Amino acid sequence: MKRANLVRCMALLAAAGLTTGPLSAADKPVVTVFAAASLKEAFDAAGPAFTKATGYPVRFSYGGSDTLAAQLLQGAPADVFASANQPQMQRAIDGGVIPATRVFAHNRLVVIVPVNDTAVATAGDLGKKGVKVVLAAPSVPVGNYARQTFAALAKDAAFGPDFAARVQANVVSEETDVKAVATKISLGEGDAGVVYATDVTPAIAPKVRAFHFPPGAAPDATYPIGVPKTAPNADGGRAFVDFITSPPGQAFLKARGFEE
Fold first, then answer.
1. Is the pLDDT of residue 37 over 50?
2. Cα(32)–Cα(251) distance, rounded to whole angstroms?
3. Which of 19, 199, 204, 222 is spaced 20 to 30 A from 105 at the CA atom?
4. pTM score, two decimals?
């Protein structure tokens, strides 16, 4: 009874224009965000600020963009999809799940090696016989970007036309997302892996060395975001997209190494 009376009072106050500020997180439905694993640190940091600004509580589900896109196409409920590349977002668009998107961030590839491992010192060393390379699976954005990079380097005489094939022959593990690659290399379960620059987090930075590919070899990683047509909380989804593309939201991405 008390709850019912409170609701009626709030409704009367709202009609009279006497309420101030957004509804609290307890009064608004949760926003469910499907996000590429590489966004975890940035989105986890941005979540409380988003809730404070809008009143919407937020729940993140991280994974490989290919896995998340497949889940959406199979009917999984989500209010936002943030992909680490356009092809996986395009799957959702072509499947009729996402009507429109915006690009909200960019990232860059790096090679990481265990801090005390001397097998790999340059990108060319990835193709040396016996080097243990850990990559994300080809369907995962960072895995696809890595293979595009190897193909580009194979056009350089310094690497040789068989460079991509030599690297692939060295792959000892294909992971489901970029965080798994970073974890394996930080634990010394491979000589080298390819991740995003933002995945060299404070937690693993003391355990790895990172270096970039030669200029122009690696494609820019582009991150699109959109609200599914079937979003249970479409208003909350749009609020999250607006927040993360705004200067306050972008500040959380930039703080963790993403580029606009």
1. yes
2. 21
3. 204
4. 0.86
User: Do 56 and 217 contact (CB within 8 A), yes or no?
Assistant: no
Report the candidate in 181, 173, 152, 164 with the shortest Cα–Cα distance to residue 127: 164
Residue with tokens 């310094």: 158
73-97: per-residue pLDDT in tens?
999 999 999 999 999 999 999 999 9
Place of tokens 């991405």: 253
Q: 75 is written with which tokens?
A: 């009917």
Which class for 181: exposed (0-12), middle (13-18), buried (19 or more C-beta within 10 A)? Answer: buried
Domains assigned to the chain: 13-107+222-255 (3.40.190.10), 109-212 (3.40.190.10)
Q: What is the pLDDT of residue 17?
A: 38
DSSP string, 54-86: HS--EEEEEE-HHHHHHHHHTT---SEEE-SSH
